[in-house]
Design a protein that fits this description.
Distance between the termini: 57 Å
Number of helices: 20
CATH architecture: Up-down Bundle
Radius of gyration: 21 Å
Number of strands: 0
CATH topology: Amino acid/polyamine transporter I
Helix content: over 70%
CATH class: Mainly Alpha
Shape: globular
Strand content: under 5%
């Protein structure tokens, strides 16, 4: 028997869970570095504008699909466009969420591994060169890499199996405030270091000389991918939403929180890096090589590095909850209990994740179009599935759904009236598709071929 469809316990719970889904590892280790090297404060101004004008309308679109249908990523399109092929968009989202969760869990496993290393004192006192070697050895070890990946997936299964309110919402209400508190602690510590203000200046000083067409495309890509619209995870989350919540206001809250976390990450990282004359790079090396080498040089540095790892773990988990939920919900609609669906999808994701986990060691020679298994999975989701999914979501909402349904969902429990609705609809129908196509052409290198 199909279980009764759940609802979020509160508006705050939905916003925190949605923000947690958006605020992932990339917002902390990639976006601040891109900002610092692409115009600082000028980048953030452009990033904020593009987020509000291009990405947030798409987020609202996914909210509209989810609450308007009351169904998961597969059921939603069947309900809103019965007898059509639009359900393929939901299937693309579920496949995308599965692949994304599979390689994302590998990084989640690394965070758990390094948290154990840090607590046990295995990182203290190491030089940057030594930390780099340790990271390469650790990620190449199949037992550690696969075991930690499975542990990260199991943590997700436990939370998702407990349900929307008792699992996702409960953990998000704890993890998201804790994430902000940990950031504040780290920022205070970073800003009190000698030379910290040079790092703040590097990170936030506006530099409009970077405003080229390529920089705008990079910023647009960052804004687009930062909220992970396109794989219908927010369709699933919003399907549990009652009609007392404003969709536009929720989207604004989620979008602004995502930008704010990126600012906090930069203020925690760059002052500390400049205090010890180290320029932080983006990607895994930042977390597992550069940051520990910085913290090893300051009093109580190991404690602050542990705090940073806990913060990263919370960010990783709140993002991955939405990925697993998007794959579990369709199984529940098919009649499986939440517990069975969670365990079943957990096992499927483990099988999918193992090749990515092994691609840094025993399967490092396996190449797919010149990329490792991990990088190929990342490329497929980030550069193809996400933009294609987002483009068709914009087309579906802008051209396929009845205007009456859109207006009803947009204005319900909202301070925004018909005039703002018309602006949003214009952005969805015309601006968002053009922006998505440009991002897709840039990300796949096609635009570089012509220019």
């Amino acid at each position: 028997m199909q279980e009764k469809r759940e609802e979020w316990g509160s508006k705050v719970g939905f916003i925190l869970a949605s923000a947690g889904s958006a605020i992932g590892i990339g917002a902390i280790w990639k976006l601040p570095y891109v900002a610092a090297t692409a115009g600082g404060g000028a980048f953030f101004l452009l990033f904020l504008v593009l987020t509000l004008l291009v990405v947030m309308p798409l987020l609202i679109a996914e909210f509209v699909i989810g609450r308007g249908s009351g169904g998961d990523a597969l059921q939603a399109y069947k309900t809103l466009a019965p007898g059509s092929k639009w359900n393929l968009l939901g299937k693309l989202g579920v496949v995308g969420a599965s692949i994304l969760f599979s390689f994302y869990s590998v990084v989640g496993g690394w965070i758990i591994t390094y948290l154990i290393k840090a607590i046990s004192g295995g990182i203290a006192g190491q030089s940057q060169a030594s930390l780099l070697h340790d990271f390469q050895v650790t990620t190449a070890n199949p037992w550690i890499s696969v075991g930690a990946t499975i542990l990260f997936i199991l943590l997700n299964v436990i939370v998702i199996s407990r349900g929307v309110v008792s699992g996702i919402e409960k953990m998000s209400k704890f993890m998201m405030p804790a994430l902000f508190i940990l950031f504040i602690v780290l920022i205070i510590r970073s800003l009190t270091l000698p030379g910290a203000m040079e790092g703040v200046a590097f990170f936030l000083r506006p530099d409009f000389s970077h405003f080229t067409a390529q920089t705008v495309l990079i910023t647009l890509g960052q804004a687009f991918f930062s909220l992970s619209v396109g794989i219908s995870v927010m369709v699933t989350y919003s399907s549990y939403l009652n009609r007392s919540v404003s969709l536009p206001q929720s989207a604004i809250s989620v979008s602004l929180m995502n930008v704010f976390v990126s600012l906090l990450a930069g203020l925690a990282i760059f002052p500390a890096a400049f205090a010890f004359d180290i320029t932080p790079d983006a990607g895994p090396g930042l977390l597992f090589v550069i940051l520990p080498s910085i913290f090893n040089q300051m009093p109580l540095g190991l404690l602050f590095f542990i705090i940073f790892l806990v913060l990263f773990l919370f960010a990783a988990l709140t993002s991955s909850f939405s990925m697993l939920e998007a794959t579990v919900a369709p199984l529940m609609s098919s009649g499986f209990s939440r517990k069975k669906a969670s365990i079943g999808m957990g096992l499927v994701i483990i099988l999918m994740a193992i090749p990515s986990a092994l691609s840094f060691g025993v399967w490092s020679e396996v190449q797919i179009f010149g990329l490792s298994i991990f990088d190929a999975a990342d490329y497929l989701v980030s550069n193809i599935i996400l933009p294609v999914g987002a483009l068709f979501i914009a087309i579906f909402v802008g051209y396929r759904l009845p205007r009456e349904l859109l207006l009803k969902e947009f204005t319900t429990s909202s301070h925004f009236g018909k005039k703002i609705f018309i602006v949003w609809l214009f952005l969805i129908k015309y601006i968002a598709p053009i922006a998505i196509i440009l991002v897709f052409l840039s990300a796949t290198g096609i635009i570089d071929f012509f220019f």
